[in-house]
Amino acid sequence: MIRAGLYSTVQDRGRYGLQHLGVVPCGPMDPVAFELANALVGNREGEAAIEITLLGPEIEFGVTALVALCGAQFDATLAGQALPLNRPVLVEKGAILKGGQALVGSRAYLAVAGGIATVPVLGSRSTYVPAGFGGHEGRLLRAGDSLAMIDGVASLSLKRYEKLGGKKSLSDLRSVGWSSPALTLPEREPIVIHAIEGRHHAQFDAAARRAFFDATWKVTPDSNRMGFRLAGPVLARSEAIEILSEPACLGTVQVPANGMPIALMADRQTTGGYPKIAEIAAADVPRMAQLAPGGQVQFARCTLEQAGELRRVLRERLDAAQRALAWMAGT
Amino acid sequence: MYAEFGDTLDLELNRSLHALAAAIRARAVPWIQDVVPAMCGIALYFDPFHPQLPGSVLEFCRGLLEECFKSASKFEDSGRSVEVPVCYDVEFGLDLTEVSQKTSIQIEEIAKRHVKTQHWVLMVGFSPGQPYIGGLDAKLAVPRRATPRTRMPMGSVAIANAQTVVYPYETPGGWSIIGRTPLTVFDPGRNPASLFAPGDRVRFVPISRTEFDKLA
């Protein structure tokens, strides 16, 4: 790593089975872009990749490797030329990949053939920065770091690249003439995110219940992998009943005493004592994750059944994309 | 999916939830990623994109809970008992004076009362390994502090309402600190990583400053 970028971490599918011990799964903020990145380099689902945020890292490759940068649209370069996004690209040993900055969306995944091979902690390679474990030494990547890749990554990469039947026509870079679709990039803002009413929705006063689904919310700069803080109308409760701490979930929108909602994201706490006004539909969490600070969002009320339908549709689109990529990759 | 069985703290209910969680885990449903017994309810976390997800997750979970509720043995003591050495010196118990004022109980008496009662882990959550422990002497039940601290030192033993928390990491918090344990609450490299698990009995043991340094 020559430069680490703004907030670059190693993430795999996530650390499951330990939430009853307070261990949050972590994992990619945008699991859809993450899985597409893996599929592009011929990896199985869930292999560890680098999640980059807003400002990309600058990486010198010590070995030849097949990589793909997928998710937010970064003006990334490889050896000084524009890096084709959402495609497998063969990076020569010694070449420098510069992540650039996010032009559309905020997070992208740099996957490498075979996956990033840091030592798993409690069954996962995902970095959990608040407690300092997982990923690369339990922390954000920084300049000077040398990231572990699997043994034989060069030969695996060349083998997979040959199968792709790559062409050179785009530039001098070794890539292909097709790309994966971007399924989660934010369309025109404010983006519309589906949410069901939360457990404590009825405790909020009428103005707050209306405002939540009517207002346009702005993601504040102190938002991070733990949660997106949303600026908009102050949401008041009819009565301030103390809530016993209870489990929280990815996409839970909780409202602390100050009336400013927080949407819980990948590194959220496992339990909390703030009232929950809404739960974001699982299918829309990856799109939410692509919002940058200052990004705008509106919540559309939906039912549990509709949220389930959105989830099935997204799974089908991801399946179709993965099948197409596997076919192109000749696997 | 969260199923709530009450909205006030009930030790019997809480203990039966640990048995229920064990029964659900034993079913090994492939798309259920986590089963979390909480204070008055149980949360089932599922993989929203798992290919084997049933048409209605809610209906499936309802059925699963009903079946497991029948088959779950009445709470049996796991036999696990965690002994937690705590130094209750004012140097560590940053809020001892405040708690003493609020409860009109002498500082020395606070520690005595804290170690005397039988405690249980009601839930582990918020951050890795952080236990919510029930069984606090009713006289020590102070509300959360009006202004939370921005830093609760690692290992701090703090009380609020009817519970005790031990902080595995330095985090912000609004509970009143009465002491500190030299034990490492959560260590991902240790087996088991978490000192506390839901349902464990807990015994607090008072130690001196010298003993604290020896154990730290």
Fill in the keyword field for this structure.
heterodimer; A: 331 residues; alpha+beta; Cyclophilin; seven-stranded mixed beta barrel; five-stranded antiparallel beta sheet; 5 helices; B: 216 residues; Gyrase A, domain 2; seven-stranded mixed beta sheet; 12 strands
Secondary structure layout plus pairing:
The complex is a heterodimer of chains A (331) and B (216).
Chain A: E1 9-11, H1 31-40, E2 49-53, E3 58-60, E4 65-74, E5 77-78, E6 81-82, E7 89-91, E8 96-98, E9 102-112, H2 153-164, E10 191-197, H3 206-214, E11 217-219, E12 227-231, E13 246-247, E14 252-254, E15 262-264, E16 271-272, E17 276-280, H4 285-289, E18 296-301, H5 304-328
Helix pairs in contact in A: 1-5
Chain B: E1 2-4, H1 11-27, E2 32-37, E3 41-46, H2 57-71, E4 81-87, H3 96-103, H4 107-116, E5 119-124, E6 131-134, E7 149-152, E8 156-160, E9 163-166, E10 171-173, E11 176-180, E12 201-207, H5 209-215
Parallel strand pairs in B: 4-12
Antiparallel strand pairs in B: 1-3, 2-3, 5-6, 5-12, 6-9, 7-10, 8-9, 8-11
- Work out the radius of gyration of chain A: 20 Å
How much helical structure, as a percent, in the residues of chain B?
Answer: 25-40%
* N to C succession of SSEs of chain A: EHEEEEEEEEHEHEEEEEEEHEH
- The SSE order of chain B reads EHEEHEHHEEEEEEEEH
| Largest inter-chain contact set | A-B, 36 and 43 residues
CATH superfamily of the largest domain in chain B: Cyclophilin-like
Mean pLDDT over the full residue set of chain A: 94
Named at the architecture level, the CATH assignment of the largest domain in chain B is Beta Barrel
Number of helices of chain B: 5
Shape of chain B from CA axes? Answer: elongated
Number of domains of chain B: 2
